[in-house]
Design brief:
about 250 residues; alpha+beta; Jelly Rolls; 4-stranded antiparallel beta sheet; 11 helices
């Protein structure tokens, strides 16, 4: 048992470094190297590993989250409504944090979060989360970049669905939801996120596929030409660049 304890402590600290990196908005665990050892030790002691089955819920609509969850693997979706009226508004993948904004804002929202596939998370119970923030102001300050990014992300998502062109909305949402240039969502979910019907979105996606911008497969959209998709998305304009038209014009007749 004595031989196992150092390994257990090392594993706990690695888990804590990963969590600290995600909480601070960093991209790699190495970014958390300057975090106080006491904070890492506290995280190692308080975080527990949890596995979620597809469809298993993290929190229910109109109820506050019971914890903060740091995603290690898999995809979580946040949705409004039920049945035919259900609309996915956001997804979160590896390295992202869910539940924290609602807890800090003392917000009870009409949305629920659930696992899309098999998900591995580090769970930080709400009581321990608030107690640790109170005892470690440095950790509270560390959360500010992540919270700022969440505000910016919300603005970008709102701007993405506020434009008139469905092409622009689709391009922007693909860029927002892509992880390693793959959008691991079925087309009906992407359509609901931009306020479009599935057939309308499918027409746009088939055009992008013909132009060589994306590749379509079962429950996934792979971005092949990010630069072209960015041009189509046009962050500060309402009308789409004719990326598809320009490519068609370039083709020999």
């Amino acid at each position: 048992m004595d031989d196992a304890r150092p390994e257990h402590r090392r594993a706990g600290l690695e888990k804590a470094r990963f969590a600290a990196c995600c909480l601070s908005g960093g991209e790699t665990p190495e970014n958390s190297g300057d975090i106080d050892f006491g904070v890492l030790s506290t995280l190692a002691a308080q975080l527990s590993l949890r596995s979620l089955r597809p469809g298993e819920k993290l929190w229910q609509a109109d109820r506050p989250p019971s914890a903060v969850w740091i995603i290690q693997h898999g995809l979580v979706e946040v949705a409004l409504g039920r049945g035919a009226r259900r609309r996915v508004v956001q997804t979160a993948g590896a390295g992202e944090v869910v539940g924290m904004v609602q807890l800090l804002g003392r917000q009870v929202l009409p949305c629920q979060a659930q696992a899309v596939d098999t998900v591995s998370v580090l769970e930080w119970p709400a009581g321990l989360f608030f107690g640790t923030l109170h005892r470690h102001p440095a950790l509270a300050r560390m959360l500010l970049p992540t919270l700022s990014r969440r505000v910016t992300s919300g603005w970008v998502r709102l701007a993405s669905v506020a434009v008139s062109s469905l092409e622009v909305r689709a391009a922007r949402m693909l860029l927002i939801e892509a992880r390693d240039d793959v959008v691991a969502l079925p087309q009906d979910v992407v359509a609901s996120m931009i306020g479009a019907s599935r057939p309308a979105l499918n027409r746009i996606l088939r055009g992008l596929r013909t132009a060589g911008v994306i590749e379509l497969s079962y429950r996934a959209i792979r971005i092949l030409d990010r630069a072209a998709l960015v041009r189509l998305a046009q962050p500060y304009q309402d009308e789409p660049v004719g990326v598809l038209d320009s490519r068609r014009r370039a083709e020999p007749k």
